[in-house]
Structures are given as C-alpha cells and as structure tokens.
Write a structure and sequence with these properties.
The protein is an all-alpha fold and 459 residues long. It is built from 20 helices and no strands. The protein has a domain of 198 residues. The longest helix has 27 residues. The protein is globular, with a radius of gyration of 23 Å.
Length: 459
C-alpha cells in the first residue's frame, strides 16, 4: 500500500479540523452538512448533492433522522441549514449538535438497562459495586471509546448502539420478532452493522424457526416452521420497503447504493486502523450458535473479524466488537480477559482521533480511569478464579505507557518529525494490531472449544 497519499490525506484532514474549531472534528461538519441537505433539498437530490466533499453516505433512515433533527436545528441557527455554508460553525450550532447527541443517548441508557436485566445474577457480591449488573452498566455507560467518539470527536454511535443492544436484549427475552425488527431498522440507519448480520440470521433461524430440540440440545429438523421464517422475512422486507421504497420509486437505488458502498475510495479508510486486510466469511463458525450466550460470542466474533479483515475499515468500528463483548465480560473469567485486552488496545487505537494539545490530558485521564475501573472490577468479580492476565499479556498492556510517551513527548523533539511524520501513527497501528489480533484469536478459539453459558456439563 502506498503510504504517502494516505499520509497527505490524514494531514489535510488534521489541518482542516484544527482550522474549523478545536472543539469539534470533521464529523461535526459532516452531520451539519447532512442537516442542510435533508432540510433544504427535496428527497430526489439527497444522494446526488455534492457541494461539500462530505456527501450523504448513510442509509435512508439516518437521512430521515437528520431531516427530523433539522426541523429542531432551525430554531437554533437557520444558517447551519444552508447547503452552501461549508464549514459553518457558530456557538448555537455547536450547542445544538452536542445537545442532540446527548438527547439521543437516552435510547442507549434504556438499552443498557434492558441488557442488565438479562444478566445472570448468580455471581452476586455483598456490595453493589461487586454485582455483575452494576459492573456491566458502568462498562457500557462509561465506555471510554464511545465517549470520545460521540462527545468529543462527534457522532451518533450511542443512539445506534442503543438500537443494537436493545435488539440483543429482546432476543435474550425470547421476543424474537421485536429483536429482528430492531436490527432491521438498525441496518437502515447505518449499514456497517451488516458485519454482524450473519450472527443474527443464524441465531434467529436456529432459535426461532426451529421450535423444538432433542434431549442432547440439537435441533429437531422436523420442527422447522415455515410460518416463522416467512414472518421474519416479512419484517425485513417491510422495513426495507419503508426505507428504500421512495428511492426505488425515483429510480435512484443504484445511486443510493453507490454512496453506501463507495468502492472507488480504495481499500483502506485510514492506514493506521489496526487491522489486516483479507476476505473473511464468518458464516461457517456462527453455525455453532446454540443459546443467547453463544449468539453473543458469535456476534462479537463477526464484528471483530469484519474489523480485522474488512474493506475500508473505519478505526471507530472497533466499538462494534467492544460493546457486545462487555456483556460477555461479566459472565466468564476467560471472556473478561479477552474483553480487557480488546478494550484497552482498541480504545488506545482511537487516540489519534484526538490529536490537539488540549485534548491530550483529557484522553489520557479518561482512558486511565475507565481502564483501571474495568480491570479492578472484573478482577474483583472473578477473584476466586485464576488471574485474568498472564505475564505476557501484562507486559504487552503495560507497554502502551512507553508507547504513548514515545509518540507524544519524545518523537516531536526528534529530527524525524519532519522527514517521517507518520511514525507515531505507524507505531500505534502496529502495536494495537498485535493486541487486537491476539484478542481476536483468543475469542475465535473460545467459540470453538468453550461451551456457552447454560450448556455446560454441570447443567
């Protein structure tokens, strides 16, 4: 891969972000522009408009979401809704954008509450802080990566992950049609969730369309319900028709899909994203899904595998694996170990998103607080079992400290800064890729050899 063009693009992006405003990122302008597009233009022009380089490239439900927000935004600052006001920023615009993210996080909070209801309460400590449900709620609500990506960098991931977690909770609660509906809606908000669609598809086929099991836990093939399969298909079809129907009527589906899947952009979203490139098909492994816990492990494996081997991967996509892994972390010590390695390495890989001097102490402090809490709470929860880390894992995680010192405090004062400015990004990418690859490998092995919770020999 040619690094130089990627480096130039990153530098241009960095300079743009510093010029626009130190308090928000390129994504702030992206969403402001989408507000303007959906508010000022007819639907027939939404996926054609290209005044700004930040064209609308999310599915239609998100476009309608921006359209609804725009009708509130006009009471804050009408100028932010002008398509030609590129890089427009004002205190009222900033207030509205930030407030809209906070307001939409209500769904995320509700989804976390529903997920916590589904957690097994057998490992109940004497203190509130030692209870799995409390630990899980903190790990999700205080997730460092989600915090910096949504509330410092700027996106609406909390709202979207809220839909995903709520769909997971509904599956745990055996409300399969609701779970399928919510996930179908989620796909038409942001198509990155296609990565975990195989896990949903196989789980629903196994747990909903087959209505009976044999005594050994395997399915009874004769119990397959075509009515339930058709019902699931109808839910997906109706949601898709509602989302894509208007653009089908306008004969614009090819244009919409060209925006959603921009293959002309090239292979990588950012060369420092800690992943490998390859083609990966997770379907052969998700066939082992048996219960809700097995579903979660395979969903996380799908998400992490797509991050590892996907095309044009966003660095922020690591959250798609970290958040569902949080649910597993309070169930088994082995999963807690994988979670801690994945979340610590994955969150550190997001550091380059916040690159200005004032943001440096903020990101370091927030990550330290979250990491210390995660490790200490899970160690307390599994204190009667073997240590969560071996010496090699401990050494690797501690190595993130010297890496940060080298990238932020040593490298800027070396002569390499001018000639090799990409070195800090390269070091971060390579070091984090090792940890994420290791976590992916451990998770993959656990799916193959570990029985899901609820299917152990004792039970």
């Amino acid at each position: 891969m040619d690094v130089e063009p990627r480096l130039k693009a990153w530098k241009a992006r960095s300079n743009h972000e510093m010029v626009v405003c130190i308090h928000h990122s390129t994504d702030f302008e992206v969403h402001r522009n989408w507000l303007a597009i959906t508010h000022s233009l007819p639907i027939s022009q939404w996926y054609y408009e290209a005044t700004s380089e930040w064209t609308l490239d999310y599915p239609p439900f998100f476009a309608w979401f921006e359209y609804i927000l725009s009708h509130v935004a006009k009471y804050f600052d009408q100028e932010m809704l002008n398509v030609h006001n590129l890089n427009y920023s004002s205190s009222r615009t900033l207030l509205f954008q930030r407030f809209s993210v906070i307001f939409m996080d209500v769904l995320f909070v509700y989804a976390v509450r529903e997920c916590c209801k589904c957690i097994d309460g057998k490992k109940v400590g004497k203190e509130l802080t030692e209870k799995p449900k409390f630990i899980l709620s903190v790990l999700l609500l205080w997730n460092f990566g989600l915090l910096i990506v949504d509330h410092i960098h700027f996106q609406y991931n909390g709202f979207l992950f809220g839909l995903m977690l709520l769909s997971i909770a509904r599956l745990f609660q055996k409300r399969h049609m609701e779970g399928a509906f919510l996930f179908a809606v989620l796909l038409h908000f942001k198509h990155i969730y296609l990565y975990v669609a195989p896990a949903y598809g196989v789980y629903l086929l196994r747990s909903y369309c087959f209505t009976a099991n044999k005594p050994d836990g395997s399915i009874r093939w004769k119990s397959f319900s075509f009515v339930r399969l058709i019902s699931l298909g109808l839910v997906v079809f109706l949601v898709s028709a509602l989302s894509l129907g208007p653009f089908l009527a306008l004969n614009q589906l090819p244009q919409v899909f060209s925006r959603l899947f921009p293959f002309k952009r090239g292979l990588c979203h950012a060369y420092w994203a800690p992943n490998f490139w390859a083609l990966y098909n997770a379907l052969d492994k998700v066939l082992s899904v048996i219960g809700p816990r097995g579903f979660l492990r395979c969903l996380t494996l799908c998400a992490l595998s797509s991050f590892m081997f996907g095309w044009h991967v966003h660095e922020k996509a690591i959250l798609l694996a970290i958040l569902p892994m949080s649910l597993l972390s309070v169930g088994k010590a082995g999963d807690a170990s994988i979670f801690l390695i994945l979340t610590t390495t994955g969150h550190y890989s997001l550091f380059p998103l916040l690159f200005t001097a004032p943001e440096l102490p903020i990101k370091i402090l927030l990550m330290l607080l979250f990491t210390i809490y995660s490790i200490s709470s899970l160690k307390t929860l599994f204190r009667k079992e073997k240590p969560l880390f071996n010496w090699m894992e401990t050494f690797y995680l501690l190595g993130l400290g010297p890496l940060e010192v080298c990238c932020e405090f040593v490298f800027p004062f070396t002569s390499w800064k001018v000639k090799y400015p990409f070195i800090p990004l390269l070091l971060t990418s390579v070091y984090c890729a090792v940890g994420i690859t290791y976590a992916w490998f451990k998770l993959y092995v656990s799916v193959l050899i570990d029985p899901p919770i609820g299917k152990t020999k004792k039970q």
